[in-house]
Amino acid sequence: VQLQASGGGLVQTGGSLRLSCAASGRTGSSFAMGWFRQAGGKEREFVAAISWIGGRTYYADSVKGRFTISRDNAENTVSLQVNSLKPEDTAVYYCAFQYSGTWYQTRVPNYWGQGTLVTVSS
Protein backbone atom coordinates (compact mmCIF):
# COMPACT_ATOMS: atom_id res chain seq x y z
CA VAL A 1 0.00 0.00 0.00
CA GLN A 2 1.22 3.49 -0.85
CA LEU A 3 -0.02 6.62 0.87
CA GLN A 4 0.45 10.00 -0.76
CA ALA A 5 -0.19 12.97 1.51
CA SER A 6 -0.54 16.58 0.43
CA GLY A 7 -1.88 19.93 1.54
CA GLY A 8 0.57 21.14 4.14
CA GLY A 9 1.94 24.65 4.19
CA LEU A 10 2.54 27.84 6.11
CA VAL A 11 -0.45 29.54 7.66
CA GLN A 12 -1.04 32.21 10.28
CA THR A 13 -2.64 31.55 13.63
CA GLY A 14 -6.36 31.09 13.17
CA GLY A 15 -5.98 29.97 9.59
CA SER A 16 -7.08 26.78 7.87
CA LEU A 17 -5.69 24.06 5.67
CA ARG A 18 -6.99 20.91 4.10
CA LEU A 19 -4.75 17.87 4.14
CA SER A 20 -5.42 14.94 1.84
CA CYS A 21 -4.08 11.42 1.61
CA ALA A 22 -4.63 8.97 -1.23
CA ALA A 23 -4.20 5.24 -0.72
CA SER A 24 -3.21 3.00 -3.60
CA GLY A 25 -2.04 -0.53 -4.10
CA ARG A 26 -3.39 -3.61 -2.34
CA THR A 27 -5.70 -1.81 0.04
CA GLY A 28 -8.31 -4.49 0.20
CA SER A 29 -12.02 -3.84 0.19
CA SER A 30 -12.24 -2.03 3.54
CA PHE A 31 -9.68 -0.24 5.65
CA ALA A 32 -9.41 2.51 8.21
CA MET A 33 -7.29 5.61 7.83
CA GLY A 34 -6.08 8.29 10.14
CA TRP A 35 -3.67 11.14 10.78
CA PHE A 36 -0.83 11.50 13.23
CA ARG A 37 1.58 14.36 13.73
CA GLN A 38 5.07 14.84 15.02
CA ALA A 39 6.48 18.13 16.18
CA GLY A 40 10.20 18.75 16.50
CA GLY A 41 11.73 16.82 19.40
CA LYS A 42 8.45 15.15 20.30
CA GLU A 43 6.92 11.75 19.81
CA ARG A 44 4.44 11.09 17.07
CA GLU A 45 0.90 11.55 18.34
CA PHE A 46 -2.53 10.57 17.18
CA VAL A 47 -4.69 13.31 15.64
CA ALA A 48 -7.77 11.78 14.04
CA ALA A 49 -9.05 8.64 12.33
CA ILE A 50 -12.05 7.32 10.48
CA SER A 51 -13.39 3.81 10.12
CA TRP A 52 -14.56 2.31 6.88
CA ILE A 53 -17.52 0.67 8.58
CA GLY A 54 -20.05 3.34 9.48
CA GLY A 55 -17.59 6.16 9.04
CA ARG A 56 -17.03 6.52 12.78
CA THR A 57 -14.53 9.24 13.60
CA TYR A 58 -11.99 9.60 16.38
CA TYR A 59 -10.18 12.73 17.50
CA ALA A 60 -7.49 13.69 19.93
CA ASP A 61 -8.80 16.01 22.62
CA SER A 62 -6.43 18.74 21.47
CA VAL A 63 -8.06 19.01 18.05
CA LYS A 64 -11.73 18.31 18.77
CA GLY A 65 -13.96 21.01 17.39
CA ARG A 66 -11.21 22.37 15.14
CA PHE A 67 -10.26 19.44 12.91
CA THR A 68 -12.60 17.33 10.79
CA ILE A 69 -11.67 14.06 9.16
CA SER A 70 -13.59 12.68 6.19
CA ARG A 71 -13.12 10.08 3.51
CA ASP A 72 -14.10 9.32 -0.05
CA ASN A 73 -14.40 5.57 -0.30
CA ALA A 74 -14.73 5.63 -4.07
CA GLU A 75 -11.41 7.48 -4.39
CA ASN A 76 -9.64 5.81 -1.45
CA THR A 77 -8.79 9.17 0.02
CA VAL A 78 -8.99 10.69 3.46
CA SER A 79 -8.98 14.40 4.19
CA LEU A 80 -8.33 16.41 7.29
CA GLN A 81 -9.80 19.89 7.46
CA VAL A 82 -7.79 21.83 10.00
CA ASN A 83 -9.30 25.08 11.23
CA SER A 84 -8.46 27.63 13.91
CA LEU A 85 -4.83 26.62 13.75
CA LYS A 86 -2.51 27.36 16.62
CA PRO A 87 1.28 27.52 16.73
CA GLU A 88 1.26 24.29 18.74
CA ASP A 89 -0.32 22.54 15.74
CA THR A 90 2.96 22.99 13.87
CA ALA A 91 4.19 19.52 12.96
CA VAL A 92 4.72 17.03 10.21
CA TYR A 93 1.39 15.35 9.62
CA TYR A 94 1.38 11.69 8.60
CA CYS A 95 -1.51 9.72 7.22
CA ALA A 96 -1.87 6.15 8.37
CA PHE A 97 -3.56 2.99 7.17
CA GLN A 98 -4.98 0.00 9.01
CA TYR A 99 -6.08 -3.24 7.41
CA SER A 100 -9.35 -3.14 9.28
CA GLY A 101 -12.81 -1.79 8.63
CA THR A 102 -12.78 -0.30 12.11
CA TRP A 103 -10.03 1.97 13.42
CA TYR A 104 -8.29 0.51 16.45
CA GLN A 105 -6.48 3.01 18.66
CA THR A 106 -4.30 0.30 20.16
CA ARG A 107 -2.98 -1.00 16.86
CA VAL A 108 0.09 0.32 15.14
CA PRO A 109 -0.85 1.35 11.60
CA ASN A 110 0.19 -1.04 8.86
CA TYR A 111 1.43 1.76 6.61
CA TRP A 112 2.46 5.39 6.88
CA GLY A 113 2.49 8.20 4.37
CA GLN A 114 5.56 10.34 3.80
CA GLY A 115 4.34 13.28 5.85
CA THR A 116 3.33 16.82 5.03
CA LEU A 117 4.55 19.83 7.00
CA VAL A 118 2.13 22.24 8.59
CA THR A 119 3.66 25.42 10.01
CA VAL A 120 1.53 27.86 11.97
CA SER A 121 3.05 31.28 12.53
CA SER A 122 2.10 33.41 15.51
Explain how this protein is built.
With 122 residues, the protein is mostly beta strands. 0% of the residues lie in helices and 50% in strands. It is built from no helices and 11 strands. It has strands at residues 2-6, 9-12, 17-24, 32-38, 45-50, 57-59, 67-72, 77-82, 91-98, 111-112, 116-121. Strands 2, 4, 5, 6, 9, 10 and 11 form a 7-stranded mixed β-sheet that branches. Strands 1-3-8-7 form a 4-stranded antiparallel β-sheet, with no helix packed on it. β7 and β8 form a beta hairpin. The radius of gyration is 13 Å and the shape is globular. The mean pLDDT is 95.
The low-confidence runs, each spanning 5 or more residues with pLDDT under 50, are none
What is the terminal-to-terminal distance? 37 Å
Mean pLDDT: 95
Q: List the helices and strands in order.
A: EEEEEEEEEEE
Share of helical residues: under 10%
Percent of residues in β-strands: over 45%
Count of individual helical segments:
0
Shape: globular
Secondary-structure class: mainly beta
Total strands: 11
How can the largest sheet be summarized?
A: 7 strands, mixed
Task: Round the Cα radius of gyration to an integer and report it.
Answer: 13 Å
Keyphrases for this structure?
122 residues, 7-stranded mixed sheet, 4-stranded antiparallel sheet, 0% helix, globular
Short description:
The protein has 122 residues and is mainly beta. It has strands at 2-6, 9-12, 17-24, 32-38, 45-50, 57-59, 67-72, 77-82, 91-98, 111-112, 116-121. A hairpin with a 6-residue loop joins strand 4 (32-38) and strand 5.
